[in-house]
Amino acid sequence: MEKEKLRVGVCGLSHDHVWGNLDELLRTGRADIVMAYDESEHCRQRLQSMCPEASIATTPEETYTTRDVEALFIFGDNRQSGEWAAAALREGVPCLIEKPMAASSEAAENMLRASHESGAALMINWPFYWWPPLQEALRRIARGDLGRVHKVHYRAGHRGPKNVGCSDAFVDWLYDSKRNGGAALMDYCCYGAALAGAILGQPDSTQGHAFRSGLIPDLDGEDNAVLTMRYESAVAIAEASWTQQDEMTAYRASFYGEHGTLVAEPYHDGRLFLASASDPHGTQQSIHQPGNGFGTASEHFLRVIEDESFSVHPLLSGEVGLIAQIALSDAIRNQTVCGEYGQV
After folding, report:
1. Which CATH number covers residue 150?
2. Does position 338 have pLDDT exceeding 80, yes or no?
3. What pLDDT, on the 0 to 100 scale, is given for residue 343?
């Protein structure tokens, strides 16, 4: 007998990452998108062109209180998404929410608490985790290949949301510090904060440094930032840029340990290098192909729901998401800001 497909709802369509994730979900053949909510008529029409049989909810609450929905994808702005996820988790609905988790550490704490109390699965989707070089690096670090890790570094950068083709609905809230939780610091330092949290845990202190270059005139917040996370015997640095004109230094992850250094290049075709005292210039490493449930966010989320023995990967967990959110929120509260337009 053919197994029934999981009935998935979608709450929020304004985050542009939603479309690739929904496409991956449908391609699994194991789920149907049965309902969606968003305020934007354009987003709703795009969803219906992808999933003609999906019903359109008139309120976000419909997507997680109806019996027709068994699991929820959440892709709204950071503030709304955090609120929706906490409410859905309290209803016992498993949730996949796009990074960084929320707009504040308080909202992230509410989500994690709701997940623990209801037992409903919570997964934070970090898009770079699906790159095989980074998965391999994390696997080797967990195995102890580097020994004790004392530094994590990650830089994320592009030419700015509008210049890289983000939709109007996405840009509207990325540029709104209340809906985003910040600007470039929240949007792009979050990746490095999550890596640090997964490997080093909760930092003892954080510091944010942000500036406005003036290259994005209609942006009130920062377009570049550095987040420093300090530990007793380690440090992590997350960099963000919305004004980098190239990708030469963007999206590379570097991990420094007592036995050597791992550098993971971005994307699915990236390479992984390991250097050590005996091999100071580094050698390219073999990369294992992703196993069952590790190819895409949808595959992972579905396996979490379908297989009780399978847990959310630590990097994608609410616990690590909260570590990252606290680091980001603290850094934003304590940040030094300068630039062409003076103090923020």
Report:
1. 3.30.360.10
2. no
3. 45
Q: What integer pLDDT is reported at residue 1 of this predicted model?
A: 56
- Locate 308 and state its tokens: 């009780």
Reference 327, options 137, 198, 141; nearest CA is 198
Whole-angstrom Cα distance, residue 150 to residue 296?
29
Domain end position, chosen among 104, 125, 146? 125
In a domain, 314, yes or no: no
| Cα–Cα distance for residue pair 66/37, rounded to 1 Å | 13
Q: How confident is the model at residue 155 (pLDDT cuts 50, 70, 90)?
A: very high
Residues 147 and 206 in one domain: yes
Evaluate if residue 344 carries a pLDDT over 80. no
Residue 210: closest CA among 187, 245, 193, 185: 185
Closest CA to 43 of 173, 182, 216: 173
User: Which of 68, 103, 125 lies at the terminal end of a domain, its last residue?
Assistant: 125
| Same domain as 173, residue 61 | no
What is the reported pTM? 0.96
Residues 151 and 282 in one domain: yes
Interval 100-119 mean pLDDT = 98
pLDDT given for residue 336 in this prediction: 76
Outline where the chain has alpha helix (H): 17-27, 41-50, 62-65, 78-90, 105-118, 132-143, 168-174, 177-180, 184-200, 297-306, 318-333
If asked whether residues 145 and 229 sit together in one domain, one would say yes
Task: Give the helix ranges, DSSP H, for 158-271.
Answer: 168-174, 177-180, 184-200
